[in-house]
Design goal:
alpha/beta, single chain, 2 domains, Rossmann fold, about 40% helix, seven-stranded parallel sheet, about 400 residues, globular, six-stranded parallel sheet, 14 helices
């Protein structure tokens, strides 16, 4: 199969190969293992994105088509033909185009594609608007555009093979989209697993870890509040934050202010971005518990949960989105936006070795079922069968 792929996350060509963010690069490499060729239609990075291009594509059958630097959302919507022409020029060289969304250019890419087009949907623009650090008038403008984009996306999904990585999204779309498949997006390869019987064995200080976007909707302030509550109870804990800042969200400054006002400055540590692979997995292996306190009801499924479980790291997560559906019984789950409940869950796991071991064992079992090798084969098989039928 000759597969085209579009997403608005950028890539860049260097002397030794194609680079893109690790979570996306690993996905592309995994697809390439089942394809004759993969052609990635992606933008070039803006100046503040270059550092995120930390993963080199290893598959020789991956080609990058440079769509140019990404314009703002309005320009991409109005001037979509600047980008869709690249897709048309590959008409005779592709069997199918896979478009990841939501994305501003998704409707235009689907309309312009000269080959059958499938969708991979991993979120919903409308769900997170109220949490944006924007003035009200701008939020309402974003809401109007997002509604238009979502309706156009739905029309495309009705005619396409559509993958979703969220149980919530699957349930919302299933009445309207006839060829809908739920999958689990992941970054894990079979070489990433690290087995240990338990954590917290060296005693305090205990290290808590969060990996992902520095986005307030991920509940970062709630995590800091939990650390403050635990400190008041005499627990010796710290929280390491690994990932990239979300443009326009001053959450890191807010965390510094909160930590200073509550006497926990040395206990909230932003470590910056870590490259996918050994550098990132070393953070998981050095931690005692993994936290994700998302407040978003439309959380798909955070890939970092699989990464933590594959590192034998007990997980504490909030009951949002697809998280309960995928990990019930294999992680400690609490209500969102409840720092007292989060603190109680952390304290319980810190001092209950039997429960930690249960979560480590069950988490490892789940993670082994969700490797890139397995999930990508499922996707490519579905794509091949669909292309034959259209």
């Amino acid at each position: 199969m000759r597969l085209g792929f579009y997403y608005h996350i950028p890539a860049v060509s260097k002397a030794d190969g194609i680079y893109m963010p690790g979570y996306l690069g690993r996905f592309i490499d995994s697809l390439a293992g089942f394809c004759e060729q993969v052609v990635c239609f992606q933008h070039a990075p803006q100046s503040d994105e270059v550092d995120r291009m930390d993963y080199r594509i290893t598959s020789p059958n991956v080609e990058w088509v440079n769509l140019g630097t990404r314009d703002n959302v309005l320009s991409r919507t109005i001037l979509a033909s600047r980008y869709t022409g690249y897709i048309r020029s590959y008409a005779g060289n592709l069997d199918v185009l896979l478009v990841r969304g939501p994305s501003p250019l998704l409707p235009a890419m689907v309309s312009a594609s000269p080959v059958p087009t499938a969708l991979l949907l991993v979120g919903d623009y409308l769900k997170g608007i109220d949490d944006l650090p924007q003035p009200r008038w701008r939020k309402e403008a974003i809401r109007l555009w997002s509604h238009w984009n979502q309706q156009a996306q739905l029309r495309a999904a009705r005619r396409s093979l559509t993958f979703v990585n969220s149980r919530v999204l699957y349930e919302e779309l299933s009445p309207f989209v006839p060829d809908l498949h739920e999958i689990r997006t992941t970054t894990l390869t079979e070489a990433d697993f690290f087995e240990r019987a338990d954590t917290c064995e060296s005693g305090p200080p205990y290290k808590l870890l969060y990996v992902g976007r520095m986005d307030r909707v991920k509940g970062l302030l709630n995590m800091a509040e939990a650390v403050a509550l635990l400190t008041q109870k005499g627990e010796d804990v710290s929280l390491d934050l690994v990932g990239w800042p979300e443009p326009g969200d001053p959450i890191l400054d807010d965390l510094k202010t909160y930590a200073r006002h509550h006497g926990i400055e040395g206990r909230i540590n932003y470590l910056g971005l870590r490259s996918m692979g050994a550098e990132l997995f070393a953070c998981y292996r050095a931690a005692d518990l993994y936290l994700i306190a998302s407040r978003s009801s439309f959380e798909g499924f955070p890939r970092t949960v699989w990464e933590a479980m594959a590192s034998s790291l007990p997980v504490i997560a909030t009951r949002v989105g697809s998280i309960p559906s995928f990990v019930e019984g294999a992680a400690e789950l609490v209500a969102p936006a409840q720092p007292f409940a989060l603190a109680d869950a952390i304290q319980r796991l810190l001092h209950d070795s039997s429960l930690r071991r249960v979560y480590i064992e069950r988490g490892m079992e789940l993670a082994r079922k969700n490797t890139l090798e397995f999930q990508s084969k499922v996707m490519i098989t579905a794509l091949e069968n669909w292309v034959k039928s259209v």
